[in-house]
Specification:
171 residues; alpha+beta; Peptide Deformylase; five-stranded antiparallel sheet; three-stranded antiparallel sheet; 8 strands; globular; binds nickel (II) ion
């Protein structure tokens, strides 16, 4: 590829933006997020790219749109080197079997705590292209999905944790 052509491409491709992650006291985190009516629109595609870039930059394994101030039903997950996008997700078939595991949240800094959650679930949603997907999830993926689903309903893990621990400031 010629230099001229690569300059042209650099101008026309929109680079993902790193978004500001909203913190615990902001009321947007406590609102029920709304269904996305235009999942295939350029605006949603742009939001997805920005959310993935923001999640990775923050070393997060999940990010819900309300956490970047967007009150819509969409979240991204990054588990075991795989990125998932869930638009208008529905969670079903939660297992009776539960486990407790330490959780943290990009919107609740320096606090961790164990949360009891079902081990397995089925999630139906639209993917990043607006196409229907259905996944049976277990382990960390199932846990992150439940944590992010909670964000879409205005719930934070600190509401559900058995205990909360504050991480000591580094000196
Ligand atoms: Ni969170």
């Amino acid at each position: 590829m010629s230099l001229k052509k690569s300059i042209h491409i650099a101008k026309t491709i929109k680079m993902p933006k790193i978004l500001k992650i909203i913190q615990e006291s902001d009321p947007v985190l406590r609102k029920k997020a709304e269904l996305i009516k235009n999942p295939k629109s350029p605006e949603i595609k742009g939001l997805i790219a920005d959310m993935i870039a923001t999640m990775k930059k923050a070393s997060g394994i999940g990010l819900a749109a309300p956490q970047v101030g967007v009150p819509f039903r969409i979240f991204t997950v990054n588990v075991e080197d795989k990125v998932y996008v869930f638009i208008n997700p529905e969670v079903k078939n939660l297992s009776q079997d539960e486990s407790s595991f330490e959780e943290g949240c990009l919107s609740v800094q320096k606090i961790w705590g164990p949360v009891i959650r079902p081990k397995k679930l089925t999630i139906k949603a639209l993917d990043e292209d607006g196409e229907p997907i259905k996944i049976r999830a277990k382990g960390l993926l199932a846990r992150v999905i439940q944590h992010e689903m909670d964000h879409l309903n205005g719930t934070l893990f600190i509401d559900k944790a058995e205990k909360l621990y504050k991480i000591a400031e580094e000196k």
